[in-house]
Specification:
mainly alpha; globular
């Protein structure tokens, strides 16, 4: 993606850390969480690769087409999974957004997009609106989980024993924080498009 190098590297680090955490979540005992975490790991690492500042490593034209293929397959997988639940629709939108961004970059490598008199394309604007709403909603959903956890600990109730504590893959607040960080990263990538 185009833009300054320092924020680009921060975006790479955020996406790579999110992808790594999603790999940890794949060790969950719950099959649905493992499947979701796998898709999110692909998104996190793919976003990290796409966010590498162009000044450091400008990918060749065929790499963008590779991203289109990988995220196109992820979109098809999310579409198939959406039969079982609406929550997979967000993964479908995210994968389609990645296909869109990779397609734009493949069509015009080395140029700054959405600058000058052309304005923001309709698709980019719609995706920016969607992910802005998603980030705000995800942040809002994350707050009650933190408040409940803090309230439970301060009330003096006994925390469950080590055998009953959820593993890293089963912590809903960490999963939500992971999704929130990927939403923020998607916004940052769309803004630089």
């Amino acid at each position: 993606m185009h833009g300054p190098a320092s924020p680009g590297w921060l975006l790479v680090a955020l996406c790579a850390a999110t992808g790594a955490y999603c790999l940890l979540r794949m060790r969950s005992a719950v099959e649905e969480q493992r499947r979701t975490a796998g898709g999110e790991a692909v998104m996190g690492f793919g976003m990290a690769a796409m966010a590498v500042p162009a000044a450091v490593a400008a990918p060749p034209h065929w790499a963008w087409l590779g991203y289109v293929g990988v995220f196109g397959a992820a979109a098809l997988r999310a579409l198939w999974a959406a039969r079982s639940g609406r929550h997979h629709l967000h993964h479908l939108v995210g994968a389609c957004a990645m296909v869109y961004m990779a397609g734009v970059m493949a069509a015009s490598p080395g140029h700054h997009h959405a600058h000058g008199g052309s304005g923001v394309p309709l698709v980019t604007g719609a995706l920016l609106l969607y992910f802005t709403g998603y980030v705000l909603l995800s942040g809002f959903r994350l707050l009650p989980v933190a408040a409940v956890a803090a309230g439970t600990g301060s009330a003096g109730t006994t925390l469950p024993g080590p055998a009953r504590r959820p593993g890293w893959g089963d912590r809903p607040e960490l999963s939500r924080a992971c999704r929130l960080s990927m939403g923020i990263a998607m916004l940052a990538m769309l803004v630089t498009l």
